[in-house]
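User: Predict the structure for this protein chain, please.
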Amino acid sequence: MVMGCLTHGALVLSVPAPSSVNRQHSEFDRILQCRWKEAADAGVCFYRLNRLQNKTIPGQYRFVAQYNPEKSKPGWRRPSQNLRKVNQAFDPLQFNFNQIHGREVVMGPGELLLDSDDEIDTFLIINLSPLEFGSCLLVPKVSQNIPQRMTLNGLELLLTTVLRSADPRLKAGFSSPGGCASINHQHYHLYYLQEQLYLETAPVEHIAGPCFALKDYPAKGFAFQLDNDPTQLARHVFTLADYMRQNEIAHNMFITRGTRFEGSSSDDDVHCEIIYDTLRVFLWAREPAFGAKKDYGGMNPALCELAGHLLMTDHEEYETMTERMVSNIFDNLTASLFQRLLPKIPQLLHDSCRDSS
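Assistant: Here is the predicted structure, written as structure tokens:
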């Protein structure tokens, strides 16, 4: 149990919003952060994160820009694969997570509290090309060689893993093939971000059933929130994500602690006073990125970027990027597919709610 937090079993359902004087941690956070730092200090990652530049781009959305030239250096990433479609078949001849070294493992099934025989090869491993402090990959059922697609089991595991943390800074997400995923073996991202994001309290509007839409945000996407049952939340999000996969629509997902939708606010001055009493899950359908990368201002828009955490490798672009420039990129990536999917939401989520009742 974590003092000051509402919990259910080992899950932390409510935490105070981030502040300089409030740093909540659970045993999960302690183990993850300690082992991640030990591995990073031992040189397991391709590069260190101790000289990153960060700034908040002026404007309504408070985009957090981060300059990291190391990410673009040749040979400082896992070998990328030539993915050509969202439903790319698993190729055992390409790099996959069966090939990792033991020193990359941060937590195994026992520490992830997985007691099913079906989960004996699920691991949390360090990201060799870290996004931020604590950057890890959750790899479910590694030996089953599941390609990079969201599964209901994997999503539920990701949600419950986030809920074992009491630190509101922990973020999580997923990128499909075509959504800037580079390894075709099922995995999900987790990392800690010190800066607060607009999406943690951003206003939303109801679409149908458990599905909402971001009300005023340039990356047009769908939003869901936790109502105490991560299994039900996983089912709703998976219904829409799997529809995208089946229809060859590239997508990204981002998970963060935040305020409940009915109490959401974007005012700066309330951040240290509020309680983060839900998980917010954002899902974007987006134009695919296959083959040669387009020029998006020194960044590849994926799960972090669409959420407002901009990982940039070009210093000039980092210095000159404006909110309008970012907003135009996001709108071009997401607006048309959002409008295409919007009419399908009521029936899709109606079926999901009926199946879960």
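Residues 266-272 have pLDDT under 50 and may be disordered.
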